[in-house]
Automatic annotation (TrEMBL):
<dbReference type="GO" id="GO:0015095">
    <property type="term" value="F:magnesium ion transmembrane transporter activity"/>
</dbReference>
<comment type="similarity">
    <text>Belongs to the CorA metal ion transporter (MIT) (TC 1.A.35) family.</text>
</comment>
<feature type="transmembrane region" description="Helical">
    <location>
        <begin position="248"/>
        <end position="268"/>
    </location>
</feature>
<keyword id="KW-0406">Ion transport</keyword>
<dbReference type="InterPro" id="IPR045861">
    <property type="entry name" value="CorA_cytoplasmic_dom"/>
</dbReference>
<keyword id="KW-1003">Cell membrane</keyword>
<dbReference type="GO" id="GO:0000287">
    <property type="term" value="F:magnesium ion binding"/>
</dbReference>
<feature type="transmembrane region" description="Helical">
    <location>
        <begin position="280"/>
        <end position="300"/>
    </location>
</feature>
<keyword id="KW-0472">Membrane</keyword>
<keyword id="KW-0460">Magnesium</keyword>
<dbReference type="Pfam" id="PF01544">
    <property type="entry name" value="CorA"/>
</dbReference>
<dbReference type="InterPro" id="IPR045863">
    <property type="entry name" value="CorA_TM1_TM2"/>
</dbReference>
<dbReference type="InterPro" id="IPR002523">
    <property type="entry name" value="MgTranspt_CorA/ZnTranspt_ZntB"/>
</dbReference>
<protein>
    <submittedName>
        <fullName>Magnesium transporter</fullName>
    </submittedName>
</protein>
<dbReference type="GO" id="GO:0005886">
    <property type="term" value="C:plasma membrane"/>
</dbReference>
<comment type="function">
    <text>Mediates influx of magnesium ions. Alternates between open and closed states. Activated by low cytoplasmic Mg(2+) levels. Inactive when cytoplasmic Mg(2+) levels are high.</text>
</comment>
<dbReference type="GO" id="GO:0050897">
    <property type="term" value="F:cobalt ion binding"/>
</dbReference>
Amino acid sequence: MVTYFLNGGLTPMSKSDTFPEDSGTITILSSSEYEEYFQETSHYRVLKASLSHIHYCKADIMGSFITGTFSIPFRETQPEGGSSFAFCMTDSELIFIDNQGFTASVLKQMEEYPFPDTRSVIHFFLAFLEYLIKDEALFLQHFEETLTELEEKILLKNDSSFNRKILQIRKKLASLSSYYEQLQDMGESLQQNPFIKRDEADKPLFGLFADRAGRLYSNVHMLKEYSMQLREMHQTQIDIHQNQIMKFLTIVTTIFMPLTLITGWYGMNFSHMPELKSPYGYIIICVLSLLIILVEIWLFKIKNWFD
């Protein structure tokens, strides 16, 4: 268990520290610790069903408290599969239930983070939400750069693993799209919630967070469309390449079709075919075949079949 109190900032609190008056507390617990300390509380009964399978971000308004969950998509600095945790918030206390250590690492980074109201749990929770998405624009820019590189490789026709890469990117973008949309819904719920009615100035702040999450969602949607366009461009390149192969095979077949006719005609070996006994028959057929090939090539050039 890790405990912080809000008194001029986010301050770690040890067992020997005296709890300051009028200061909010932030506590990080594992699911077993939460069950041990809060089993008899009403918010435990609400959260109990969600702790074992957290798959999305949400905030549920329950009158005197707010409960919810976070499911954060995978990052390089997070465990495989992403991070998930639950929370419960009252006027004076915010409890995180986290078995993966994600919130502990975030709060450690936020110890020097400036807060608009250093004693308000609501303001801290807003700052926590903002901290979660503060670098998301740069993170999405990485996806855009990756897609741009893929586009260049498509044009250069030197990426044989395009389908696998674009599939991985689209899966990540789909996960991020759902994540940002859920954060937007959470911000809108907290903005309209009567739980913060006494702090009217906080409502626009949660609205600003919802707008920011909405813009991230729009960026992801744009990247998803970009990836779809790249997929279509790649398929177009494949179609063009296949058409070129078919065009080449068509030209070769067309060139040799009259030669095949001549070969089949004189392959009948009837005894009264005069050309078979002519001393110049072979030369005549060779010259005729060469003339036919030259005439066909000339016609193909006129019709731009070699372009």
